[in-house]
Amino acid sequence: NAGVMQNPRHLVRRRGQEARLRCSPMKGHSHVYWYRQLPEEGLKFMVYLQKENIIDESGMPKERFSAEFPKEGPSILRIQQVVRGDSAAYFCASSLREGSGSGEQFFGPGTRLTVL
Amino acid sequence: QQQVKQSPQSLIVQKGGISIINCAYENTAFDYFPWYQQFPGKGPALLIAIRPDVSEKKEGRFTISFNKSAKQFSLHIMDSQPGDSATYFCAAHPNFNKFYFGSGTKLNVKP
């Protein structure tokens, strides 16, 4: 039973390029969350999605960042025109439907983005 | 404003000792309090979690103590081992929504 998959694991981009991060949730999970972690810091919530819907994007910068979770395929976190301050580890988590079980979020291994 | 405050930032414990990490929260709507363990280069992994209707939960060497009136909860690692050396995050959330994470505690267990 595969866990949450993220790719790529490492991504290097030059300033001004686009970064595209992918997340495949655990089988049966329809809720996806994206978090950002700066070095030596905790995880900061960015966005919460269900299939084809953005439920909460209160933690995501208004410009350059977007996220989607299509009916088919992985969730995508897209960062346009990257800047050095975007360098961080981006983690995706998934959970089973709301109201069931513990609400536990299972995390992927993360994508480490480096902006040169 | 930080929703969940965690301390200490770092902790050094001798092998066999007790590691204690504390968290405090403000939002009374929080109803699920997990602790995550993160090794370098890895994603956080759930260690143990508690709901506010109990004051303590124990799983092996790991115990959560929960004080609802004080809005505090803590993680106790008994008989700490070098393999426990990692960063620990407390978290809280209301209604299975987004998690609010503490800033993390870097634990180093000396052999």
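Chain A touches chain B at residues 4, 31, 33, 35, 40-45, 48, 56, 59, 91, 93, 95, 98-99, 102-110 (CB under 8 Å).
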